[in-house]
Amino acid sequence: MSRAAEESNRRMLRARDAMDRGYAQPLDVPALARIAHVSQAHFTRTFRATFGETPHRYLQRRRVERAMFLLRETDRSVTDICFQVGFGSPGTFSRTFRDIVGLSPRSYRRAAVTAPVPTCFTMAWTRPNG
Amino acid sequence: MFTAITHSQIYVLDQDEALDFYVGKLDLEVNTDVSLGFMRWLTVNVPGHPDRQILLEKPGPPALSEETAEQVRELLTKGAMGGHLIFTTDDCRKTYEKLLGRGVEFTEEPTERPYGIDCGLRDPFGNSIRFTQPKE
């Protein structure tokens, strides 16, 4: 492992942090590649090699994890939550949510329990594997 | 049985850079900075609380082989080494603004939680840090 690889890891982590922070924004590969200071061509491949999934999939899981949080902790409507976490349409949201969690947003809400632990851990550990 | 936690440890890539961050930016104070010859024992604490120290340890020989140290560095820079620190603050938003002004980059803005207000950031190496202002 060279210093160059460590630097690459840190850049990819920076882009991943940007997704954790700005999940509700329209984040695309060009924007993320700029944050990581690498070319678009390198970005997706390097991100996948570093974290084991594509940036798109990571962002989807982050958005679904936030949606799970809002379904658990708030009374907001499923449609509101869909847009609030950055999905473009309720159809895409429901499909992606079910695909990753295995339940519809409404079924998840009925079954959910609150976890009394700091957010950094719920963010990492209640994010579904999908 | 036990009465306190006195030392916790996180890995850093560079101890001088760690001091710039933890002392220069976060305002922690150096507790102990001493060379043992083969390693630099460097601990910091929250000002006024020297009873709880954080060891800023650089992975490498003789504690770890070069090869293992490289694996640790790789995990650290991926944000996968653990190394979580959670600090209490009396004013999360004020602390956030102050650190933003010092060029600290956050992973999460101050947000209301069931347990208080908190925000998140990373140290320059990949360790995850939070500040929590507990609910009254």
Automatic annotation (TrEMBL), chain A:
Tell me the Pfam families matching this sequence.
HTH_18
Q: Give GO MF terms, alphabetically.
A: DNA-binding transcription factor activity; sequence-specific DNA binding
Q: Which PROSITE patterns match?
A: HTH_ARAC_FAMILY_1, HTH_ARAC_FAMILY_2
What is this protein's name?
Helix-turn-helix transcriptional regulator
Please name the source species: Streptomyces liliifuscus
Q: Which UniProt keywords apply?
A: DNA-binding, Transcription, Transcription regulation
Q: Which InterPro entries match?
A: AraC_XylS_family_regulators, Homeodomain-like_sf, HTH_AraC, HTH_AraC-typ_CS, Tscrpt_reg_AraC-type_HTH
- For the keyword DNA-binding, the answer is yes
What Gene3D superfamilies does the entry give?
Answer: Homeodomain-like
Q: Which residues are in the HTH araC/xylS-type domain?
A: 13-111
Q: Does the keyword Metal-binding apply?
A: no
UniProtKB/TrEMBL annotation, chain B:
Please name the PROSITE patterns in this protein's record. Answer: VOC
Q: Which Gene3D superfamilies match?
A: 2,3-Dihydroxybiphenyl 1,2-Dioxygenase, domain 1 (3.10.180.10)
Which residue numbers delimit the VOC domain?
4-134
Q: Which domain of life is it from?
A: Bacteria
| Pfam families linked to this entry | Glyoxalase
Q: Which PANTHER family match?
A: GLYOXALASE/BLEOMYCIN RESISTANCE PROTEIN/DIOXYGENASE, GLYOXALASE_BLEOMYCIN RESISTANCE PROTEIN_DIOXYGENASE
Question: What is the name listed in the Swiss-Prot or TrEMBL entry for this protein?
Answer: VOC family protein
